[in-house]
Write a structure and sequence with these properties.
49% of the residues lie in helices and 12% in strands.
Length: 318
Amino acid sequence: MLQDKRMVMSANDDRVKKIMRDIKSIKIQGARKVAVAGARILVLVAQGSRAGSSGAFVSELRNVSREVVGLRPTEPALRFGQELIVSRVASRKGMPVGELRKYAVSVCRNYISETKKMLDKIAQYGARLISDGDVVMTHCHSHCAVEILRFAKRQGKDFSVIVTETRPLFQGKITARELLAEKIPVVYCVDSASASLMKDATKVLVGADAVTAGGDVVNKIGTYQIAIEASEYKVPFIVACGTHKYDPMTALGFPEPIEERARREVAGVRELTGAKVVNPAFDVTPKEYIYEIVTEIGVFSPETLVGVLVSRGRKEGT
């Protein structure tokens, strides 16, 4: 029996390490999928834990959670999800350790279910902003943006989408494939063509990895320049994201960390010898360029959304 438990734990360890590698390498990408993957890691840890007490189990969960959060520093959704799960489990550490492990699994699974409901609500609110004849430009791969466009298509709306390739990892190809699977017309372009094609766009729709206390949006590198181009052509720039992307720590003066990706994504180790190669994964789009933010609680201007979230946080004592 002991041998069987060791086999299970070894299998769980391998699965945890694989998910962590996939998060770090952006094989798993998109803030919601990353947050869900983080929750699944905690499920595996809970199922395979050999902690002898509830306190030791909570410590184990907390340590793994810190490691998970460190994989993608510019992901408030991941941080929020991990903190929420661990805090809920820690609040029940008076339970026997066996029961607490089962409770942790249920907390993780409930969290995953709630993120799906959140995505559905965002899709419903966002689809109202899509009209027949629209040409929507999008950048990178956002589950929220794609779900909005899917929902609008299934409502019978006729529109097309300009998809930027999103170097250096070409996440735009994921978006293009998913939209084509829904029979949505797609124009796929290199990133540097966005300004030239903006004259044809009627809306820009992107996701977000973080929303700051000032109402600015952190998203895939290149988003800021597209926002500037949209402003020049007076094209509404719309962001879609869950309210869990709001980072209240930025209100205390802590900047949202911008992840610096590996040089090898941009240039080979023997290329450009002597050059400093920079590869920031994200940039910050100031609120002045943002027309509206679509969330699971409604559609707001950046300032109004932050006000609503701050007010809600005060009421909840957070």
